[in-house]
Write a structure and sequence with these properties.
Helices cover 21% and strands 25% of the residues. By secondary structure, it is of the alpha/beta class. The longest helix has 17 residues. The strands form five sheets. A three-stranded mixed sheet has the order 2-1-15, with helices on one face. A three-stranded mixed sheet has the order 3-4-5, covered by helices on one side. The chain contains six helices and 15 strands. The chain has a single domain, classed as 5-stranded Propeller (L-arginine/glycine Amidinotransferase, Chain A), CATH 3.75.10. The protein binds citrulline (CIR). The site of citrulline has 16 residues, from loops.
Amino acid sequence: MIAITRKVSPSINQCELTYLERDPINLEIANDQHENYEKALRSLGLKVISLPPAPDLPDSVFVEDIALVLDEIAIITRPGVVSRRKEVADIKNALKPYRELVSIQAPGTLDGGDILAAGDTIYVGVSSRSNQEGIQQLQEFVNPFGYHVEAISVNGCLHLKSAVTLVGENIFLINPEWIDKEIFKGYRIIEIDEKEKNAANALLIDQTVIYQPSFPETAEKLADAGLNLKMVDSSELGKAEGALTCCSLIFRS
Ligand code: CIR
């Protein structure tokens, strides 16, 4: 497995914010935490390709938003905010050796944070960042490979993966305030602790769930469910509305 990451931009304090008030980000802490994140990925056997920081692209550490990498193809997104569109060029270059690339075109918009791939179902959040045209284009790219796209409306949070992520095969960690949990009925669902509203973003790698220590009650629920947790603090980038999945693009080599 390969993980593409990108170092924190020195201009991270100019990041986009949608739901949070601006709270200064300490670059040194953010860098240290990001380094630990990369270390955690390496410790799980991934080859980490760590791209250099982009001083003029404040949100570029959040590489997840720029692509969906499937075994067969990679879809380069067209981010919902203009300030992030220049992030595409370097991610395209990084992915070129590994996959055939296709790109979402205007007027479509799509952020990778809105895409949750679970087997041959690709759930996509209809959010302030991802529109129907973008989702339609995604569907046309992936249908020939047997994937089925399911659009889900997201309310009250930035991205679909702020509200739901996978924590095991067919096990979904959900904040039911932000998406309709009925969509996942038939699967195993773990609900976050209601006091920890940002707790639904976990990064599943094989049998290990990389998880954020700021959400201890939800972490306990995950541990009680028999899941294997590896705690990685990403709280400083949380001030930029980023979470654990946002900082990597993970795919089979
Ligand atoms: C943004 O608003 O685009 C960034 N400040 C945060 C992006 C987080 N990405 C993600 O959840 N996939």
